[in-house]
Amino acid sequence: MAEGAGLVRMSGIGKRYGGVRACRDVDFSLGAGEVHALLGENGAGKSTLMRILSGDVTDYDGTIEINGAPVHFGGPTDAQAAGIAMIHQELDLVPGLSVADNIFLGRELRTKLKTVDRRRMEREAGALLERSGVRLDPRRPVGELRVGEQQLVTIAKAISLDARVLVMDEPTSALTTSEVERLFDVIRELRRSGVGIVYISHRMEEIAQVADRATVLRNGRIVTSFDPRRLSTAEVVEAMVGRPVQTMFTTPDADTGDELLRVDNLALKARRPRPGRRDPEGISLTVRSGEIVGLAGLLGAGRTELLETLYGVAPAGTVTGRILLQGKEIRPRRPRQALAHGIGFVPEDRRASGLVLFHSILANTVVSSLPSYGRLGVIARRMERAASVRMADRLRLKFGRLQDDVGTLSGGNQQKVVFGRMLLTEPKLLLLDEPTRGVDVGAKAEIYRLLGELAGQGLGVLLASSELPELIGVCDRVVVLRDGRDVASFSTADSGEGDLLAAAMGEGAVFEEVGGAQ
Amino acid sequence: MTDVQDKPATQVERSAGSVVATLFRFQSVFGLLAVFVAAIIFSPRKDGEILFISADNLANVVRAVSEIGIIAVGMTFVILIGGIDLSVGAVLGLAAVGSAVLMVESDWGFLPSVLLVLVIGLVFGALQGVATAMIGIQSFIVTLAGLQIARGLARIWSGGQGVAISYGDGPNEAPESFAILGERTFGGLVPIPVLIFAVVAIAAVVFLRVSAFSRHLYAVGGNEKAARLSGVPVVRVKIAVFAICGLLAALAGIVHAVQLNQGSPNDGIGYELDAIAAVVIGGTSLMGGRGSVAGTVAGALLLGVLNNILALNNIDSNIQLLIKGLVIVAAAALQRLRPAT
């Protein structure tokens, strides 16, 4: 811990949004070469505090000192000039531009003739990416990359700024275990060179691994500060949520019923293959009713693509193999058909593909089940309201009014709305893609509770996740995918994270596969 | 199963923000009121009577906006799904020509002519919807092409000339019943075109309020990907919306023909821009997913009142254009101030 070398000192920070006090009287400091973890539920004030530090929020109470000199940033540019860089949770990349163009956006490298030096940018971008733990063709458009890869690009971009202070807001939420390890190596290297890092995360085990000091925020105040290697996860969680959480995970319920879904050697040959996509190349698995089956695998193993194929949203192409739902062969070509068969889907990125953020909670909740609230295409408002209220109750949604924009909810509550929408279609099988990404601990526990409850009612769940503890803790069984194939299946009763990881990584050559050959 | 306690649903504090939000929501209505009041103040007077609010003048104001208004209702639907329809003016011309040719030259009856013209508009719009939704061409391009095609069809059908409509029972005369649409008033005051506009507007408002389809429409405009994943039939919604817009453009074309007693292939040039202006002033977002028909109606009326009062004061028509432009910018600027959500 590099005390004394006070790089950043924020004292008495306060910030109000209307009636809500996002931060009150917060003291926060960061030393050179220190990794300071910031914890707290969504809405605890972490992001606000960091947005103040990075110049994004300019009207606040309190003072900020950098290297002992008081500063007041007029905007993000000022903060960047002072050596502060932030990696946002929302990825601020331009989808149409290449990886290299994005990394050097606004400070493009020039040739002698003042034209853009594309070759040098691509070379340097490639080197930067390798440093941050990924092999990726710098010429690929960012829009083609999956979320995890995009996250790595923003990290590389931030590192390229040569900042003295680096704020990372959930940098690992879409990364696989091996990529997280590489990122940690990068963080340790940065620390050695004297960079101060603020590390925001919901994942306790990461913080124990990488942080020198951890501070917990709750309701805009600092609750406690501690050495992350000393406190137990349970104690930290209790500090965050302000109440004891004894078990995060529900006990897997072994009491499962008949076979609900059978996937037999399923493969998809896309008409126009897209780079970075790993369509199924022969996957077989089953889900019984009342069973929660996990899908594990590295980034690029084909988990999302399998779920998309089952839900009828995969790109056009030739499907071989069979999908049987309750013994009947189906082949959904669009979500409507999948829903009609009783298959629901909660997508990976709720902001981009789950919700209309500026529409009401009500409208977002009922959109998949509209025909059931009236006749002849006319909606009975009372019925849809009642359904929405019922679902909000069941999911313990925290909200103001049903007509508020869904975008005003916290991440966890937004995710509950997507869940609720699917549950209102009364599915038999629920496909979930990273359902707890970017969701705080409290909401996570509630989602796990809900999954247990649904399984208890006979619903089958297929859950793709990058979080091994989640897969082990929530699922009855985990199927491991690698390169578009199922390579192993474990009962969670008698296997651990190590087994899954070993199966997912295979014979060691996997790292090359993940990045995609150049 | 779990030890997480249930927290009561926390009521989010509502500040004075909701009042401001309401103001913004109905900004076009307030804008209309403001322009209306200004019109009364600046109206020329004759014998102490304020000319602007005379019944005849007001009826004229609404009559003048009825065609643009009908088109703008359809345009609102298209813009709500994040699209645009540049072909409406040309479809209006095609429909006006069609009505005239069918009744005058082909001696069709009133009802068959009107029905065929409406079907032509509907099919034309639906085809543009197919090109947008199924082939995936941006609606701006599809309807830019549609504009040319509809204009070309109108020229071919009319032989390149305006077709005058005269009324009577003889050959080459349109049935008297057609004239009623243009000339008669309802209750001695409300012109029939205004009545048609009112019925269309009210039907659209009700439709957007109660139908499941409208929820789908807003969802498609708000986030197309999320809508598709939610099971919304995105392709069907898009085709239907463009079909509705084409249908309403054709209806406006019929109204146009009866008001001018002719159908010319040059009818409706530039109407698409006035319709878009009405929609924008009405507060509908060009990004889709946000807006209302009520706002559009207010927007269309606002433009109508503005035109009328400027004309009453004998202000140069070129200056009128300048003022209209400034009003559009002002309306759009106001929306930028809308509290973020």
From TrEMBL, chain A:
It holds the Pfam family ABC_tran. One of its GO terms (molecular function) is ATP hydrolysis activity. CDD domains: ABC_Carb_Monos_I, ABC_Carb_Monos_II. InterPro entries: AAA+_ATPase (IPR003593), ABC_carbohydrate_import_ATPase (IPR050107), ABC_transporter-like_ATP-bd (IPR003439), ABC_transporter-like_CS (IPR017871), P-loop_NTPase (IPR027417). Gene3D superfamilies: P-loop containing nucleotide triphosphate hydrolases. One of its GO terms (cellular component) is plasma membrane. It is found in: Cell membrane. Keywords: ATP-binding, Cell membrane, Membrane, Nucleotide-binding, Repeat, Sugar transport, Translocase, Transport. It is a peripheral membrane protein. Residues 8-244, 261-508 form the ABC transporter domain. Its main location: membrane. PANTHER family: CARBOHYDRATE TRANSPORT ATP-BINDING PROTEIN MG119-RELATED, D-ALLOSE IMPORT ATP-BINDING PROTEIN ALSA-RELATED. This is Sugar ABC transporter ATP-binding protein.
Automatic annotation (TrEMBL), chain B:
It comes from the Bacteria. The chain crosses the membrane at residues 24-43, 64-81, 116-137, 186-208, 237-257, 293-313. GO terms for cellular component: plasma membrane. Signal peptide: none annotated. Keywords: Cell membrane, Membrane, Transmembrane, Transmembrane helix. It holds the Pfam family BPD_transp_2. It is a multi-pass membrane protein. It is found in: Cell membrane. One of its GO terms (molecular function) is transmembrane transporter activity. InterPro entries: ABC_transp_permease. This is ABC transporter permease. It comes from Kribbella turkmenica.
